[in-house]
Write a structure and sequence with these properties.
Blueprint (H helix, E strand, L loop, with lengths): L1 E7 L3 H11 L5 E5 L24 H11 L4 H19 L7 E2 L6 E4 L5 E4 L2 E2 L13 E6 L7 H7 L3 E5 L11 H8 L2 H14 L5 E5 L7 H12 L2 E5 L6 H16 L3 E4 L3 E7 L2 E9 L2 E12 L9 E3 L4 E3 L53 E3 L9 H4 L2 H18 L1
Parallel strand pairs: 1-2, 1-14, 2-11, 7-8, 7-9, 9-10, 14-17
Antiparallel strand pairs: 3-6, 4-5, 12-13, 13-14, 15-16
Length: 407
């Protein structure tokens, strides 16, 4: 089957690439094993969390691009990064929107009781960015072992409680089960009433980020009406319910735009001729199906997403067999001290590209002219230390599709 664009990878960068191309009326195939890392880690949109707290994000990005010419952001440019972020935000109009509460990063509480810098925040978490000592009640649930309310509250200088779950007989419960329970009005009334009894002058209630999968705003508003105080979500350990919301919103919008999804499948072979990819094969048991396109975007992520595979001697790329920028020897992958203040060299591994995100070798020679790379698979970033993962995925996914469609 023939498409204008085939995107391999269904994480945030692949979804952004699909959105960008779909807005231009292109015929798109999106292939992926699942939700990428959205269902694991994404709650907010980190763009560059290591900026000084007082620095404007726009100025910070401009300076970062100048200082880090090999970084993925430099392939997009500060203006392109802002365009990509604006495109992402446009997909989430009110009531469930993503907001920047100030010109720079804001600090939000986490499930570890720490404060983490981030840029774009879902509206369900905004009230947690301005906590004062003692003004919030942090609520956890018995049987839910991924959030310890008393520990979180102690770190935030607030009060914490743990509630039993009415009508739930299991000793342990999961994030998705709790999210579904909170979508039931009767459950919300019961929980809201119990929390209200525990309020002693607090003006906010912090809950783990479980306020429903489909309509978190309704859940939030109902609880606020019952309790008479503001409610906010606190990011917790995987799975990420807010990340699932992002994925489902993209999928719903893209399907309406005519994008073809192949979810749960992977590419088994790419047909290359000279400097072009002429087609791919996708295993759809018991058969393998061929697809072709004028352009391809590779957004398979790093090790967790399967985009990179670590062997005994070297790291390899799993779809096109592209050369991977990496330390020369296995012994050089990590610092001598695992908990070193310096990032481990292996974390900068990835695919080198030209200025339009096409793969090149270490000498800068073009490898494939109709393939572009997006997301964390790109080389020369430390997204964990930089707190830039979602920003890189959004901006490079947007730019890769834009560059491809301009051709």
């Amino acid at each position: 089957m023939q498409y204008d664009l085939i995107i391999i990878g269904m994480g945030l960068s692949g979804l952004m690439a699909a959105k960008t191309a779909a807005e231009r009326g292109k015929k798109i195939l999106l292939i992926g094993k699942g939700m990428g890392s959205l269902s694991l880690f994404s709650n907010t949109i980190d763009v560059l969390g290591n900026l000084p707290e007082t620095m404007n994000i726009s100025n910070g990005l401009s300076q970062w691009v100048k200082d880090h010419p090999e970084h993925p952001y430099s392939k997009v440019g500060s203006e392109g990064i802002q365009e990509g972020l604006s495109s992402f935000v446009s997909l989430f109009p009110p009531p469930y929107s993503f907001e920047a509460t100030r010109d720079g990063n804001s600090l939000i509480p986490t499930g570890a009781g720490t404060l983490r810098p981030t840029y774009l925040i879902p509206v369900t978490m905004v009230a947690g960015t301005a906590l004062k000592e003692g003004d919030a009640l942090i609520v956890g649930f018995e049987g839910f072992k991924d959030f310890y309310a008393h520990y979180v509250a102690d770190q935030l200088n607030c009060r914490g409680i743990t509630l039993s779950l009415p009508g739930v007989s299991q000793r342990e419960t999961t994030a998705t089960a709790l999210a579904r329970l909170l979508e039931k009005q009767s459950f919300r009334r019961t929980i809201g009433g119990e929390i209200k009894k525990q309020l002693h002058g607090q003006t906010k209630v912090g809950l783990p980020a479980l306020l429903g999968m489909n309509d978190p705003i309704q859940v939030k508003e109902d609880l606020e009406e019952i309790m008479g105080v503001e409610v906010f979500e606190i990011p917790i350990l995987p799975p990420s319910i807010p990340g699932m919301r992002i994925f489902h919103r993209f999928k719903e919008w893209l399907i309406r735009k005519g994008v073809t999804f192949l979810s749960g499948y992977y590419v088994t072979r790419a047909t290359l001729k000279g400097k072009r990819c002429e087609g791919i094969e996708v295993l759809r048991p018991p058969i393998s199906t061929s697809y072709s396109s004028d352009h391809y975007i590779l957004a398979t992520g790093r090790f967790m997403g399967g985009g990179l595979a670590a062997g005994e001697e070297k790291i390899s790329e799993s779809v096109f067999g592209l050369p991977v920028f990496q330390p020369r020897e296995r012994e050089e992958w990590f610092q001598k001290c695992f908990f070193s203040n310096l990032p481990h060299p292996v974390h900068q591994s990835g695919i080198l590209t030209d200025s339009s995100l096409r793969p090149v070798d270490e000498k800068g020679n073009l490898i494939l002219e109709n393939v572009r790379i997006a997301g964390s698979l790109l080389a020369h970033h430390h997204s964990i230390d930089e707190k830039s993962r979602e920003g890189i995925e959004i901006s490079t996914g947007y730019a890769a599709a834009k560059y491809a469609m301009e051709k």
